[in-house]
């Protein structure tokens, strides 16, 4: 046991403690994102009475590391005009929602709410349509020669 053996042990403890602190900070951001998502969805369902906001679903929330900005992702059902009306209604309701988030979630700073349309559902349905349009040959449609070659090999 030399002079440096104790140093290595204390350094190992320090590095594992540092990793736990980093992970715990990420967990806090995730918890706050989940809380904001829940509260915004509840407000849109029960408290925001703007008729322009149609069938809107909150799909996710990302919060900046300093907890100052919350990007709220939403999807809306309907045609283009209804989706645009929903975006306008959400923009008008942003200050109300931000104030209510500040009252419901005790934090030093209330994050600024930024609504972003989530294109992932449209993209997913587009990919689904492409996959359905592809025609895969069924086993009955495979010519006999190919079927015999596959069974013989």
Describe the sheet with the most strands. 3 strands, mixed
Tell me the span between the first and last alpha carbons.
Answer: 66 Å
The topology string of helices and strands comes to HEEHEHH
- The order of strands across the largest sheet is 1-2-3
In terms of DSSP E residues, the strand content is 5-15%
- The overall strand count is 3
Helix fraction bin: 55-70%
Low-confidence stretches: 14-24
Which structural class best describes the helix and strand composition? alpha+beta
Mean pLDDT score: 81
Q: Which value, in Å, is the CA radius of gyration? A: 26 Å
Number of helices: 4
Give the tags.
153 residues, alpha+beta, 3-stranded mixed sheet
Could you walk me through the main structural features you see in this protein, from its secondary elements to its overall organization?
By secondary structure, the chain is α+β, with helices and mostly antiparallel strands. 59% of the residues lie in helices and 14% in strands. The chain contains 4 helices and 3 strands. Strands 1-2-3 form a 3-stranded mixed β-sheet, covered by helices on one side. It is elongated and about 75 Å long. Residues 14-24 have low confidence and may be disordered.
Question: How would you briefly describe this protein structure?
Answer:
It contains four helices and three strands; from the N terminus they run H-E-E-H-E-H-H. It has 153 residues and is of the alpha+beta class.
């Amino acid at each position: 046991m030399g002079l440096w053996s104790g140093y290595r042990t204390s350094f190992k403890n320090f590095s594992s403690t540092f990793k736990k602190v980093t992970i715990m900070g990420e967990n806090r951001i995730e918890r706050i994102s989940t809380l904001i998502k829940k509260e915004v969805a509840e407000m849109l369902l029960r408290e925001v009475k703007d008729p322009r906001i149609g069938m809107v679903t909150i799909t996710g929330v990302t919060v900046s590391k300093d907890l100052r900005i919350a990007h709220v992702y939403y999807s809306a059902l309907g045609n283009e005009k209804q989706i645009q009306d929903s975006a306008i209604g959400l923009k008008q309701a942003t200050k109300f929602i931000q104030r209510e988030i500040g009252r419901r979630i005790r934090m030093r700073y209330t994050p600024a709410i930024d609504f972003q349309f989530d294109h992932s559902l449209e993209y997913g349905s587009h990919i689904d349509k492409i996959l359905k349009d592809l025609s895969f040959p069924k086993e009955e449609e495979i010519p006999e020669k190919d079927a015999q070659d596959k069974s013989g090999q």
